[in-house]
Amino acid sequence: METVIEWVKNNLTLVIAGAAVLILLIILIAVSASKAKKKRKSEKQSETVAKEENLKIAEENVCDADLSENSADDNSVDEKEDAQSEKEDVSDTDESDTDSEEIKQTVNNTDENNKVNEEENSLTKEETVMVNKKNTVSEKKTKTEGKTQKKVLKSVGKWTVEMKAAGEYMATLSANNGEVMLSSEIYTTEEGARSGIATIINCVANGKFVIYRDKNKNYYYKLKSAGNRLLCVGEIYKSKDQCLKAVETVKRIAAQATVLPDVAEGAKYVAYKPVTLSTDDIKKGLRGRWRVESTEEGNYCAKLYASNGQLMLATEEVSLRKSAEKAIEAVKKNSLAGNFIIDRDKFGRYYYKLRNAQKSVICIGEAYDSLESCINALESVRRFAATTPYNQE
Predict the structure, then answer these.
(1) Final residue in a domain of this structure, among 246, 267, 288
(2) pLDDT above 70 covers what percent of the chain?
(3) What pLDDT does residue 316 have?
(4) What average pLDDT does range 159-183 have in this prediction?
(5) Using the 8-state DSSP alphabet, how is residue 255 labeled?
(6) pLDDT for 97-149, tens place per residue?
(7) Helical residues (DSSP H) of the chain, grouped into ranges
(8) For residue 131, which phi and psi values (nearest 5 degrees)?
């Protein structure tokens, strides 16, 4: 021991230097340990913050997944509670292995949910593209249908309400090329003519067309209701085939034709003033003859024949014989009163109509190339119709 003390005394400087070095080493080791501890603590705090952020992301993703998949509300609540529990565990014990494992699992679940969301978003984008394509196809189809509809509308004709004279309105149906296909009877008001259009359209589908041939071998048709009431008369054609084609055109376009909103100025009647019948006219009339005849369809009509047997006039067909006999009286009365009008067809020819006081047509005459021929025929019919008696057979 004395030897050691003696050595220390002799080497005191060396001992002090060694002690200083030792103390310095201890200090360095302590500082290094302190820094390492702080670094570990900082890393743990950073790790905790990162885990908390991942937990938040996980919660948001879980919520998004729940909304997009429409999952049950209970499952969503459970997942949120688990995530919150994991968050609290991390805050309480930073170094807990169990919590760390749960956090890792949550992070893994978050990654999986992110992948699922990405896949769903991808699918959603694909579905959106498909929907857009369908919408584009639908729009193109709609445009095509619209163009087709416009073409259809372009191909049909038009209904026009015309004013022929004061208090006299009629409806005409024209094809797309402007050709007049039919003319209605006379109505006293515009509203009556427009209502008549609806009646005619209905009867085009459910009524009947009757083809007639006049003494000049021209053809025309009449449209009658199911009750055999005359609704309108077609134009005059030189062949039966043309007349039948006109009927088919009317059937095709009547319901689709546009009804024009304005009243048009119709062609005026040809000026005509009936002459006064003389005693000689009455004597000539006595040589004529009225007959009520049955038709092929089982109806009846009254016919007026001249003394030479020529057919002068025929009334509209009716279902009862008595109705045909009453029509004779109506013809006689209105012929004597001169209730005739003269009009022109689309070819410029002249024809006459005998009407009653209400301006309903009783019968229609033939078509003539000149006004003079039409007036002569009218006056001849008037003399015979007004003066020839009817002897019931």
Answers:
(1) 267
(2) 70
(3) 84
(4) 91
(5) T
(6) 444 454 345 445 555 555 545 555 554 555 555 646 556 656 655 555 555 44
(7) 2-10, 12-69, 73-92, 97-155, 190-206, 240-253, 279-285, 321-336, 371-387
(8) -60, -40
Sequence-ordered list of residues with C-beta below 8 angstroms from that of 357, at least 6 positions apart, any chain: 334, 339
Helix axes 321-336, 371-387, angle to 10 degrees: 120
Sole residue written with tokens 């429409």: 70
Q: Are residues 260 and 294 in the same domain?
A: no
Mean pLDDT for 179-185 is 89
Q: What CATH number did the domain enclosing 294 receive?
A: 2.30.29.80
Dist. CA 178–CA 157, nearest whole Å: 8
Residue 353 contacts residue 363 (beta carbons within 8 Å)? yes
CA atoms within 13 A on the CB side of 157: 20
Average pLDDT over all residues of the chain: 76
Same structural domain, 190 and 286: no
Please name the amino acid found at residue 382: R
Domain tally for the chain? 3
- How far is 265 from 303, CA to CA, in rounded Å? 35
β-sheet with 289-294: strand ranges across: 289-294, 300-305, 311-314
